[in-house]
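Fold it.
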Amino acid sequence: MNQRLLPDRKISATFIVLALIGTALFIFTFIGNTITTNLVCTGTFNNFHSTQSPIQLRAILHYATSKTVPQQSLAEITISFNVLKTISPCNFLVFGLGHDSLMWAAFNPGGLTLFLEEDPKWVHTVLKTAPDLKAAHVSYRTQLSEADELMRTYKSEPECGVTGVTKAYVRGNTRCKLALNRLPDVVYDKEWDMIMIDAPRGYFKEAPGRMSAIYTAAVMARNRKGSGVTHVFLHDVDRRVEKSYAEEFLCRKYLKDGTGRLWHFEIPPANGTGGFC
């Protein structure tokens, strides 16, 4: 992630991102001009025309003039891009705010793309240069060093909702430490068609780790009331904690595809059944 790209790789990555954004602009402009009914997702179609161009044009300008490129590889980005081509405009929740945020927002014109970031100073910095983005600060109650203990003990807490007696929930859930219980209301009020987990930090023991983000995404997906699945993408699955928590809460049987360090899950609503997998 922190490795410095060679100049030719930076140029190649920049052109790839610009090509994808350009493709999205063409596809969504064509769709917007030819379709007059609601699409699959829960995004608001009426806002489609007024919001698609500014964010995409800003993204093109940003990546054409910036020395930074998105953190994910082309193959990883393409999996998410192909899903967004099918379901956008939709509700897209992203854990993390970074150099790829303008790109993700540009891929979802007319939909709601919301970024959740652990560092309030970084939120302020990014929004100064990209005011079109929607981002919020989130506090985590965990540390990476607790990952193994949380995995061993969460099943003994009824409020974590694994027995089927108590339905899993996150809003206001102070008993289950894995639940992100103090997010902005919009996160709980919306049904998210797509969730990307590429944060918080999870590479040193004092970091929050992604245990709560993975658990919360799984609960939101299983509690979905609308039709269809929730697409959940998890990055850095080469790391032990991300992989083990994905298998526990997102479930191998819902793993649709993946490449590199990215897994893509299609998680159906629970429909009254308890547990996760």
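Residues 4 and 152 are 38 Å apart (CA to CA).
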